[in-house]
Design brief:
By secondary structure, this protein is an alpha/beta fold. It contains 5 helices and 10 strands; from the N terminus they run E-E-E-H-H-E-E-E-E-E-E-H-E-H-H. It has a 6-stranded mixed sheet with strand order 1-5-4-9-3-10. A two-stranded antiparallel sheet has the order 2-6. It binds zinc ion.
């Protein structure tokens, strides 16, 4: 089954789950947990080899609300905002959302396929959800991201590289706009790729 959607979210403080079964799979210990039903299995034998950086804010330009988490858990009220009416039907998710304050919330275990990339292509391979990890930063096209967000993003990438060796290649990080050009603009012109690369310098194997 493939529903694919795209972009998605951010959430505020996930809550640890009581039921062990609900948290099966690989979760980042630093993140709160807010499980999304919007995921499925990766193709057999496929491991993550790409990190996709996204940005989202709901409503666009507003920070700190519960709406990204609601979008990712199919509980967004379409009547709450005109934009929500356009997107509430989407079945989307990301693995992790990093809020403006650096708080990370995980929606999908890394070994499962989150629905964040939509129609996409990387190095000639389509359907990037199959082999990628989607990280959403709460943000928008016209404001810089926060120091706290970069710090948490760097810690998360390092942790992921320790578990999925193919992610250690420097080229294994792309923006949503890189894999869906013409269709997506996130993470946008304010995402500082050079700063991220500098923070990760020395970590890469390629
Ligand atoms: Zn995106």
């Amino acid at each position: 089954m493939r529903r694919d959607p795209e972009s998605a979210p951010y959430a505020r403080g996930g809550e640890p789950l009581g039921e062990a079964g609900a948290t099966a799979g690989l979760w980042w210990p630093e993140a709160g947990i807010c499980p999304s039903p919007n995921h499925d299995a990766r193709p057999f034998g496929v491991e993550p080899e790409l990190i996709v950086i996204h940005a989202i804010s709901l409503p666009p330009g507003d920070f700190g609300g519960p709406f990204i988490a609601q979008l990712f858990t199919n509980t967004l009220d379409p009547q709450r905002h005109p934009f929500f009416a356009e997107i509430a039907h989407l079945r989307v998710s990301a693995h992790v959302v990093i809020g403006r304050d650096g708080r990370a919330t995980q929606f999908v275990p890394f070994d499962e396929r989150a629905w964040h990339a939509g129609a996409s292509c990387w190095n000639g391979r389509a359907d990037c959800n199959d082999f990628s990890i989607g990280i959403e930063l709460e943000g928008c096209d016209d404001r810089p991201f926060t120091e706290a967000q970069y710090a948490v993003l760097v810690r998360l990438i390092r942790w992921l590289r320790g578990r999925f060796p193919r992610l250690a290649a420097e080229a294994a990080i792309a923006g949503h706009s890189d894999i869906a050009p013409g269709r997506k603009t996130d993470p946008g012109p304010h995402f500082d790729w050079a700063y991220l690369a500098g923070q990760l310098k020395g970590d890469s194997t390629a």
